[in-house]
């Protein structure tokens, strides 16, 4: 009985909705879609670096905690006027109404990036790290289409010392596989212009067997693909204030389709506030500011609406971003429809 209990808990992480999915949630994905879609590699004129941490369901012991670092940049050496790889003259608002009205698409170019993500839930932890590549096609005078691929390695581990059984010599732990390495591949596409974006991606393209036991009785776990579709548009309320609504659909079998809906109100690409809704899970409040041409800081708090709200106080997420080689000295945040 103890043996079944131990490994049923582990299988929950692999297949049941209580754990939501095998990859982490990001409330602020809209500001770093690169984490979910490698096609964004090199979409900016500068080197875009993000460092973040998410503490989910505070109040629950051993609840999920996620940390990440990502960076991507383009391989094009030219700075051309009025396109995503270059921005207006130094100090100008990079996404002002006048700029977007005269926007032209980026020339074809390559982009590369790297990321590392750590995620821990109870005794189970994983580390994902890898590289990405994207090619950005110039479709017309104001539109681009990029395609990207990510390749990396995942380490999935079980901390046996964190499992307490009535019998410390229980045979359930006799054949435990404490860590395993798996290849990881993701692909994506991204269609974008001055004021809109739409994209799709698939993580964990190659299904992998996931088992923490050498016993044939407990080796049915597996990784499954994660599908994402997202889109958004920037609406100018006046010359200084813009609203950016966006949505994301997420599908992870055997779970039902999940919807994220976001709205961000932005003042001159310097400060912003926003809200988000995740179906059958949470509401979120978000805020952030851009400091000169170097960094931006964003924070989100999730108000849990699922049955976990009786024991969980909500989730915290904070992200610090840096823009290196920012040739046009514009305020951080760049094309803030992201």
UniProtKB/TrEMBL annotation:
<protein>
    <submittedName>
        <fullName>Type IX secretion system membrane protein PorP/SprF</fullName>
    </submittedName>
</protein>
<feature type="signal peptide">
    <location>
        <begin position="1"/>
        <end position="20"/>
    </location>
</feature>
<dbReference type="InterPro" id="IPR019861">
    <property type="entry name" value="PorP/SprF_Bacteroidetes"/>
</dbReference>
<dbReference type="Pfam" id="PF11751">
    <property type="entry name" value="PorP_SprF"/>
</dbReference>
<keyword id="KW-0732">Signal</keyword>
